[in-house]
């Protein structure tokens, strides 16, 4: 369960199966997050590249800590390390 007041952003691409899995995981765990879909928003795409140094999704930003080109299993470990899950 979500325990700390943190800012979770997930960068996604429409049609990406790993993105769908990651979004479902965050929703199932009741982690508040903002989904920033990069195909429909060039500002989000540039933001993703600036933060992570790459353009692959899903990429998660937790208060400035970046987990790039990931999946639900890695997101779970990433959030547990930060005391969110």
Give structural attributes.
four-stranded mixed β-sheet; 39% helix; 3 helices; 85 residues; 19% strand; Glutaredoxin; globular; alpha+beta
Describe this structure in words.
This protein has 85 residues and is of the alpha+beta class. It has one domain: Glutaredoxin (3-Layer(aba) Sandwich), CATH 3.40.30. It is built from three helices and four strands, in the order βαβαββα. A four-stranded mixed β-sheet has the order 2-1-3-4, sandwiched between helices. A hairpin with a 2-residue loop joins strand 3 and strand 4. It is globular, with a radius of gyration of 12 Å. It starts with 7 loop residues before the first strand and ends with a helix.
State the assembly state of the protein chains: single chain
Strand count, sense and barrel status of the largest sheet are: 4 strands, mixed
CATH homology superfamily name: Glutaredoxin
Q: How would you classify the helix and strand content by structural class?
A: alpha+beta
> Count of helices?
3
What is this entry, summarized?
With 85 residues, the chain is of the alpha+beta class. The protein is 39% helix and 19% strand.
């Amino acid at each position: 369960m979500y325990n700390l007041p943190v800012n979770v952003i997930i960068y996604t691409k429409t049609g990406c199966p790993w993105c769908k899995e990651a979004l479902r995981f965050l929703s199932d765990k009741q982690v508040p997050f903002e989904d920033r879909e990069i195909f429909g928003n060039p500002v989000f795409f540039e933001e993703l590249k600036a933060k992570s140094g790459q353009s692959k999704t899903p990429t998660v930003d937790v208060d400035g800590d970046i987990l790039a080109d990931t999946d639900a299993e890695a997101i779970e470990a990433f959030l547990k390390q930060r005391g969110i899950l």
